[in-house]
Design brief:
There is one protein chain. This protein is α+β, with helices and mostly antiparallel strands. Helix content is 16%, strand content 33%. A hairpin with an 8-residue loop joins strand 7 and strand 8.
């Protein structure tokens, strides 16, 4: 390890735009890599997101952040607002290059499923397409959208309506084996990682103070 660098807020603001973007996007560490599938008027759409967060288990809520509105169309958000449904699909390690390509700015009439090499599938008449190659698939219903005034982004909050994954990936306690699922992680905007399980610990409880000798 080299000598640590110190960045004050003023230093961060003075950084080159691309370098600042990459540092701030990477500083949180490894994030989940997910493909969000939507459909509007029989036109499918697929886009990669790394901002998915757990918001609660009862009801089961997940959220993700969309970029500010602007000149670039936000097909994923537009489709969710129109239909109220979307899917979240873990990115397989074997498909990270194709998943990354979904971040390109395609026209609405073009389907990222087809262009980027993914198969769409439908489960239990759910009104949004799932990624067939994904080991973990989640069907979502829009609950609310929360504007973040500081930077004009929006937190999209949805409720889980459906989960499909191989039975042998779930432990008796309900833990999901992300290593066996070959789920990819992402750092920054374009660096992908393969996850490996290190350990599982019991629920943490306060330890009694050490007795002095």
């Amino acid at each position: 390890m080299t000598k640590p660098m110190l960045f004050t807020r003023q230093d961060i603001d003075r950084l080159d735009r691309i370098k600042r973007l990459n540092i701030i996007n990477s500083i949180t560490g490894i994030k989940p890599a997910n493909l969000i599938g939507t459909q509007l008027d029989n036109q499918t759409n697929l886009a990669i997101f790394s901002s998915l967060v757990h918001l609660g288990s009862h009801p089961p809520l997940l959220g993700f952040v969309t970029r500010p509105p602007g000149d670039v169309p936000r097909h994923t958000l537009e489709n969710i607002l129109a239909t109220g449904h979307y899917t979240i699909n873990h990115v397989p390690v074997s498909h990270v290059e194709q998943a990354h390509q979904t971040s390109a700015k395609y026209d609405r009439e073009q389907s990222e499923f087809e262009i980027c090499g993914f198969d769409s599938e439908y489960i239990n008449d759910f009104p949004a397409p799932f990624v067939a190659e994904a080991c973990v698939q989640i069907g979502m219903k829009l609950s609310q959208i929360i504007p973040i005034e500081l930077n004009q982004t929006r937190l999209v909050v949805g409720q889980i309506e459906l989960i499909r994954l191989p039975a042998d990936l779930i432990s008796e306690e309900g833990y999901i084996d992300l290593t066996s699922a070959n789920t990819a992680g992402i750092s920054g905007l374009n660096s992908y990682y393969q996850l490996s399980h290190q350990n599982t610990f019991p629920y943490a409880r306060p330890k009694p103070p050490k007795q002095s000798s």
